[in-house]
Amino acid sequence: MDVLDFLVDPLRSGIDRRALLELALVGGFCGALGFWVVTERLVYSAESLSHGLLPGLVLAALAGAPLLLGAAGGALVAAALIAFAARDPRIGPDTGTAVAVTGLVGLGALLALAPDSPQRLEELLFGDPLGVTDGDLAAAAILLVLGGAALVALHRPLSAVAFDAGGAAAAGLRPAPVRLVLLVLLAAAVGVAVQGLGALLVLAVLIGPPLAVRHHARTPARAMLGGAAVAVLAGSVGIEVSFHAHSAAGASVALALCAAAALGSALRPSPGWARGGAWQRSRRRARALPGR
Amino acid sequence: MNGTAVRVEQLAAAYRGEPVLEHVTFEAQEGESVCVLGPNGGGKTTLFRVLLGELEPTAGRMELSGRPAYMAQTERTRLDFPVTAFDVALMGTLAAGRWWLPPRRPERDAAAAALERVGLAGVAGVRFGELSGGQRQRALLARALVQDAPVLLLDEPLSGVDPASATLITGVFDELRSEGRALLVASHDVESARSFDLVLCLNRHQVAFGAPAETLNRAALEATYGHELIVLDDGGGTRAVTVQHHEHGD
Amino acid sequence: MPSPLDLADLPFLREALLELVLLAVTGGVLGAWIVLRRLAFFSHAAGSATFPGLVAADASGVSPTIAGIAVALGYAGGVQRAGRGGAGSAASETARDHGEATALLLVAALATGVILASDVFESGAVVDRLLFGTLLGLDTADLVLSAVVAALAAAGALALGRTWSAVGFDPDGAHALGLPAGRADLLLLVLVAVAAVAAIPAVGALLVTAIYVLPAAAARMLTASIRGLVACALGVALAEGIVGLYLAYWLDVPAGPPVAVLGALVCLVLAAVTKRAAA
């Protein structure tokens, strides 16, 4: 079969075309946002949030409501519960988060597996890119436009806080509101992306791309753009593989994103690029100074 | 060894391939106290780790009259771990071996005695995290006392300690010395070093070693502390004030 | 509502009851240490990492026990080596620092398992069973593994408890006491990982924390001594396991979800109530 035909075949299918578009839109934003998620050490929070919103998803599916609503509500409840549990000093944040997330995942499974509910649990857990609706596409487009605008507008404050929170605060830029905006963007991204990748795999689109470009991008801007590009590319590869190999679409995309991260980490550039370039170097310098 | 508790010759150590300590040569007799001065990262803790056998030296020799007991810095202990002052003292008995057995009567008695000695008998059942800073240091000292070691390595035992606890702790140090034990105390306090028998100045290598009167001169102090030091000349001799740096976490 | 006595009368429920009791023993004894040494994430990760191996074993006829244990040992060893110093530094306090690579590894594991199950082996139903547990599908091999794990956990805690405590309280000081801290912690990680595998048939790979972390976390709200924690965790785990099993039977769902919801509720309510009482 002609190689071009091979690649273009999925585009002939309306379903896969829409899946590709959805993943491109979502990947474009999440691949960029992921840089800040990793830099600000929000990976664990992102994972807990995405797992913890499962009951919201299930309830939305049971009620026939849009999944985005369920994801948003679920994320809110999860955030509140995790915040409460993680704050208990007797068990610590690691255990507290585990308590909240395990309870929520269990609740989601309970609601989904009770006999008279529709069996959509696997799609909610692992995603359903091929079932993307017009509403989902619209939400993804809005996320990319508004979220992207927010990232551009906040670029300097985000960089300042991530580079040196103490110094930024001293200069009058309080880290807390900046981090809050980041969390809100994270929750929005998770809420939209969960349709295509599912609660358990959505982390891949947030963490895979930044890890893939970590050693190759010299500035935050390049890391974000590179991440977006990697996400879109990996998403396309995942859909292609899923189309030809008839494998689960969401899982295929997630694996492609993980593979991109592994590949990007393994292909370290020559020492001349000094482990990540200017961005990492200046961060390490800031950390090493005495009195900090 | 005839009364020598610690002897170290041309000791060198490296951490992950990077040399952190070189040319360390000193000796302490039974009953002597050595103040180990130096900046953060200067090698005080590294020296202790080598003496404890945790870190293999890359060069040199060392001799000890027995297995040393170690009193760690409190910052490295977890305050939320549910152990009482008594439990902490009891941990010292693990050093005698047979750690797989539950604690026996003699071990419990030794722990109680050690707590008594540091003045914590009244708070033996209080959780470590709920003790004051000075009480915590004393509990860690009790853990070291229980081991009945001929050499004690004490890492900044008086940092952040209230005056009453400090007096008590230094009192115990004097008792230990009269018992014939050797004490190596890592410290940031240059002034207090004058009250020790010997001073060892480290800054990734040995800068000076000897009695305080000879060792604590301006040149040695500047070589040890570099920019961290302010040296005041007040006519009667030099007084040194160290600027202590704490590493702030990321 | 079915009668609770069915748990003892019906053969398949008797097996499920025995399994949960055995898991609860481990949940109490080892769970206390999981909470004390901050290994909650590690125990969850060990369960999730095993998932694709179990899918493959299930489809190819290899004993899932062996496959699971092999993966568990590999995972524990990998975490230990990455931490360079034992559970104190490896899997717990720095879980957030290692979080990126580990989190991605877990996503890859779950995705691989799903693809294997639905497309390679075409055994879709096994996914729900492996992720959330089963009431009916427990066999003797599962019971034997759980019994062995419970025995090992109890023996390990008795012999190594003092060491685990010393290391958890002060890793540097523990080394100085001449304790085999690294090996003791490796053993702890191995025990937790193998225990996670043992719990998968009954409560599922995603919810092993339901029986190993949640009861002990609830117990921690009630007591602040190590011995008290072990005893209390044991009691809470047994109670939650049995009640959870009853709920699973009543609602016709696998055992994992009800035990998880019950465990979280108990822990969070106790946290709120005891905090108010203390304040």
Please provide a written account of the structure.
The complex is a heterotrimer of chains A (292), B (250) and C (279). By secondary structure, chain A is mostly helical. In chain A, 78% of the residues lie in helices and 0% in strands. Chain A has helices at 3-12, 14-39, 43-52, 54-63, 67-86, 92-113, 121-126, 134-153, 155-163, 165-170, 175-197, 203-213, 220-245, 249-266, 278-288. Mean pLDDT of chain A is 86; it is low at 271-278 and 285-292. Chain B has 250 residues and is of the alpha/beta class. Chain B folds into 2 domains: 1-68 and 150-215, Rossmann fold (3-Layer(aba) Sandwich); 76-148, no CATH class. Chain B is 30% helix and 28% strand. Chain B has 8 helices and 11 strands. Chain B has helices spanning 44-52, 85-91, 105-117, 133-145, 163-178, 190-193, 212-215, 218-225, and strands spanning 4-15, 18-29, 33-37, 59-64, 69-71, 151-155, 182-187, 198-202, 206-210, 229-233, 238-242. In chain B, strands 5-6-7-3-8-9 form a 6-stranded mixed sheet, with helices on both faces. Chain B has a 3-stranded antiparallel sheet with strand order 2-1-4, with helices on one face. In chain B, helix 2 (85-91) packs across helix 3 and helix 4 runs parallel beside helix 5. The mean pLDDT of chain B is 87. Chain C has 279 residues and is mainly α. Chain C has a single domain, classed as ABC transporter involved in vitamin B12 uptake, BtuC, CATH 1.10.3470.10. Chain C has helices at residues 6-9, 11-36, 40-60, 64-83, 88-93, 99-120, 125-132, 140-169, 171-176, 181-203, 209-212, 214-222, 226-251, 256-278. In chain C, helix 2 (11-36) packs antiparallel against helix 10 (181-203). Chain C is globular and about 55 Å long. The termini of chain C are far apart. Chains in contact: A-B, A-C, B-C. Chains A and C meet through helix 3, helix 5, helix 6, helix 7 and helix 12 of A and helix 3, helix 6, helix 7, helix 12 and helix 14 of C.
